Known about the structure:
Layout lengths: L1 E3 L2 E4 L6 E2 L1 H14 L15 H27 L5 E2 L3 H7 L5 E3 L5 H10 L22 H10 L6 E5 L2 H10 L3 E5 L10 E3 L6 E2 L3 E3 L5 E3 L1
Parallel strand pairs: 2-5, 2-6, 6-7, 7-8
Antiparallel strand pairs: 1-10, 3-4, 8-11, 9-10
Amino acid sequence: MILRASALLFDNDGVLVDSHAAVDVAWGILGEEFGLEGFSISNHYGTRAQDLILELVGEARFEAANNRINELEQSSADKTHALPGAVELLHSLPAGIWTICTSANSNLGRARIKAAGLPLPEQFVSGDDVANGKPAPDPYLLGAKKLGFDAGDCIVFEDADAGVKAALAAGAAFVVGVSKRALETDADIVVEDLAGISFDGKQLVIPEHKIIRR
């Protein structure tokens, strides 16, 4: 499959890097400490921690819980590793035509990218950089703006429902879902992973055998 675009916008966790095991452990500990019985972070992948914390514990306990989850997630950032195809694809891309738009805070997002051996783009967007996190369009609108493009010129790679909704709301030209998790989203297509995908600044080429849903 060949898609035309001027730039690429990537979610990080679940698209470029695998951090979900560490995330599950961190939020499990938080749930035990703050009495969040029955809570599972797997139902909220892609959402900013600060937004979820406020919803879960309220304003009175927000600061304590937010500081604690930041501590827990930061301490496990070194356990992050790159997903198939991520290192090869990002290192093949010229600067200025791609960036990462993550819901993680700046320190955590950068630590995970570094641990996975991925390049950090100058135009990096974290959850700290926007007024509203995913599923609001803000992260992808800002990512496109930093690259000097409209969101409609960009292809977004996402795995989580909140992120796909953000990309669609931003008016992205095309949304590529990554991994089986994305089968439950409204992504335009879903691919197994990023292995074999290439981009020359005009055309994104996706191997047919990597597409698991059209």
